[in-house]
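The authors assume throughout that readers already know how a fold can be written as discrete tokens. For illustration, here is how one protein appears when written out as sequence plus structure tokens:
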Amino acid sequence: MDNQLKALRSSVEHLSAVAARIDPSKFDSPAYPTEWSIADVLSHIGSGAVILQRRADDIVEGRATDDGFNQSVWDEWNAKPAAAQVADALVADAALLKCLESLTGDQREGFKFQMGPMTLDFAGMVGLRLNEHVLHTWDVEVTLDPAAALPDDEASAVVDNLQMIVQFTGKPSGETRVWHVRTTNPARDFTLSFGPESVKLSAGEPSGAADLELPAESFVRLVYGRLDPDHTPSTIDGRDLDELRRAFPGI
């Protein structure tokens, strides 16, 4: 848990530094994916921070969140001009981090976060925020540097949060196939299993030859649909990547 919060703090600081490098005239320029502008991405991060902070406050206080709260936040943020979306996102992002870090051990222990059909504990909620934050920060940073990679400390935390995510991002092809994936920095071994109707990721055994070996940050981006040919390190053997890119089109 402390590792994930530390990584989230690092990502919040990283996003702030990235945003400071962007010329305000570029706020409406495409981010990654291109259907979103840079300001759109920041607005998503900021509105999400407001919603999560309210939910966290309500959970700690033992009260229900108003059904219309999320929509009211989205409406408010969608109406903001681009410059305000960027500036306000950084403020809301820092406020959420402060809120999460301030929770006591007892409050974290009793934390239950309902998201659709899933019930997450404190670690699960922080993990989801971390994943989203790290990837969306890259969505912005890559507009400044096409060779941008996820920072190692953040990728190290996110790569261990992928098992649940793969179930949602992976698209089964109707065929059965098993991949042995090995990552570096950090070293991890995974079994990526494609069934007729499902995709699963599980811990693998660090033995034998890997079907695919790549940096952990690249594997994270692959799972999130962000390892297209133009943003793939030249050190990766890409012979089979097209198949996996089709399996992980992105969210």
